[in-house]
Amino acid sequence: MFLSTTPAYRNLFDEEIGQLVHQGCSSPDWNLIKVASDFVVNNIENCKFSGHIQLNSFQGSVKLVGGITFKTGIYNAWLHNCEVGKNALIHNVRSYIANYIIEEGVVIDNITTLAVDGETSFGNGATVEAINEGGGREIPIYDYLSAHVAYMMSLYRHRPALVSALKKMVLGYANFVKSDKGIIGANSKILNCNTILNVKMGPATIIDGAKKLKNGSVNSNYEAPVIIGEGVIMEDFIISSGTKITDATLVSKCFIGQGCILDKHYSAENSLFFANCQGFHGEACSIFAGPYTVTHHKSTLLIAGMFSFLNAGSGSNQSNHLYKLGPIHQGIMERGGKTTSDSYLLWPSRIGAFSLVMGRHYKHCDTTDFPFSYLIENKDESILVPAINLKSIGTIRDTQKWPKRDNRTDSNLLDLINFNLLSPYTVHKMLIGRNKLIEIRDSSQENTNTFLLDKMKIEKHALDRGIILYEMAIWKFLGNSLITRLHERTFFNDIELRNQLKPDTTFGKGYWVDLSGLICPHEALDQLLNAIENEGITSLEEVNSALVNLNKNYYNFEWTWVADAFKNFYGKGVDKFTISDVIAIVKKWKESVLTMDKYLFEDAKKEFSLVKMTGFGVDGQNGDREEDFIQVRGAFERNATVITIKTHMEKKEALGNEMINRMNVLLNEFHKTFSKEIPES
Question: Apex CA 214: angle with CA 64 and CA 126, to 5°?
Fold first, then answer.
């Protein structure tokens, strides 16, 4: 591993050894020290060298905080078995640095111990007991772990051959990176730290004030540096590029994905955090935090569950045991969930996508077939309000903000994220939910005001409204896919229309899955899983490549699903569509889109009501409250989200009218041609 085999390095001259001794340096064997051809001894003071040492030249300078300029070199340190790159600065090492390759431009100042002790994989292969605190879903982590591979390893335990094959690949990678020497990447800064043991760091890493880092990898790079701040303690970890961990955060047995922020005394154990997660103040224990899982408040505990695109309110909590067999239970909140302040869920439970949980729920709720719903507690009863979140402006705002809040600047993105609000994944559930609501309504007595669904109650008006809202959302999705399919395609009659509507792939029918950010048909995923199980795919690179292809083909798969869905929901397959069918569907689509946008518009208007102005214009009179509100919150008409809704309504109405007019022109042409072909009597 030593670079000393290159001719550019040489032994120290006798006069250089003499000068080093004069400058307070020592070594039990000066012959074990190799230096660059342009090495100068002036910048080496009060140092002890042991084992094999390789030193480049130190002729530059670096600027420290406060504008202080310091000459590069090694001052007041003990180095054992180390290589030091060009123009690095090592200053004030209270104990020693052992078994490290310190690359060019690195600054190490005021630390206690930096060492590699024996062979280590630097956190690769460390086992994380995610989702179920009692074990059974533990996975080995590695440098390039994605949410999707972690999903398969942790949740597909019903396919042991798959899990075994993936684990074998990860452990193979862990053995590949195993070494008895660590690396500190070029231009990194390690300042004011205590103990760093068995940790490798990529370029441009900044560690300032960390208390203890043990057995881990900091995968920083120039595109997306990693920052680790004061008081941080971490053990058995992998940190991905662009991540920030500061302010006395505690991490044990965790993978932390790209663009994450853990701050303000956050505590995490046996957990996985993927792209753009944020944790402040609270606590995580055995969680699978998919992309954009966010918790900003004290007293918020996320435990033994799977989440993604989650916004956890203050004091949110879950229980994962019933005090009988220990903490063996687990829960799932599908993508886009929200919990209000002081909300509580008793695991096991499963909450449907884009749903809001309010209050405390002591029964095991399963709302997976009712996305976009509220789960509200009333007198210890769990009340389900189906589809109501489809009317919420907050839901739309969330989908707009997520892409804008992508902190990842690395060109190599580990997690493949589909931000679509409506997709075959959510719309398939709506179809099932709508059918269940209709079945409940039709099988109950006419004067029934409250319906029971498993351990939840549904009020009649909420059930009726849920059916209508789901129908509108389904029409919106199906119609939008149809218009997108036909918008730039040319056809002049029904036969040519059907040819254009023929799916490009057979994959896509049936139910879909959300692999923690990546949405795809289970049928296509199953093909990948079979290839892994049957050793058709044998490397992590091949797995990642296959996942990328699944993501790239999303819209082809989506159209196959939509074409199949029309058979049941519209009553006619696309292979029998006519131009008149397109007109009818687009009209239904336009009606649904505009109605739903009006709901959103009215919901947004509530945020600017007189009630919401309470507390504004504290000492003012005669309209001062309204003016104060406008100065702080802005006027309703100028609100960015409101403008977006208005623009969306205008564009969609114009698009719908354009498509309908285009179809009517084709119909007229068809009738003219047909009438000419009929001979006069």
Answer: 135
